[in-house]
Amino acid sequence: DPRLPGKEVVLGVRVGEAQVAYPLQSLKKKPILNDLLGGKPVLVLLDPSGESGRVFSRRVKRKVLTFEPADKGDSSLLRDKETGSFWEPSTGEAVQGPRKGSRLDPIVSLRAYWFAWRTFFPSTELRKEQ
User: Backbone phi, then psi, for 105, in 5-degree steps?
Assistant: First the structure.
């Protein structure tokens, strides 16, 4: 598959029948990504190490949230635009604001080489340069 070099590292995610690969190089440019996967709202985050990532559902109590970097205090936190709550990206837990104590549901993701992910999921979408 010529879309990426074979040994490019991707974060692979599968929700239902939908599969998407996010190149880590693209996530380094945009480490917080609000996306839709198989019609489901997801949050894709690059780990601080830049070597892997995490994926969460953006739906909390039937409400879809949109995340951005927190602009006050600890810059490692996320803030949702809808309620202004602050979230810990490593756990998906709200630590301040109206949603304090809520937790985002994690979605399984896999760090893999592009050639390997593409072999197991030949119909995968590739999301780069968001």
Answer: -75, 125
Quickly list H helices, the chain.
24-29, 114-120
Amino acid symbol at 111: R
- Nearest Cα to 3, choosing from 27, 28, 22, 30? 22
CA-to-CA distance for 124 and 119, rounded, in angstroms?
Answer: 10
Q: Over the stretch 100-118, which tens digit does the pLDDT of each residue have?
A: 999 999 999 999 999 999 9
Q: How far apart are the first and last CA of the chain?
A: 20
pLDDT at 71: 75
pTM across the whole model? 0.92
Gap between the Cα atoms of 56 and 33, Å rounded:
11
For CA atoms 2, 127, 89, 70, give the dihedral sign: positive
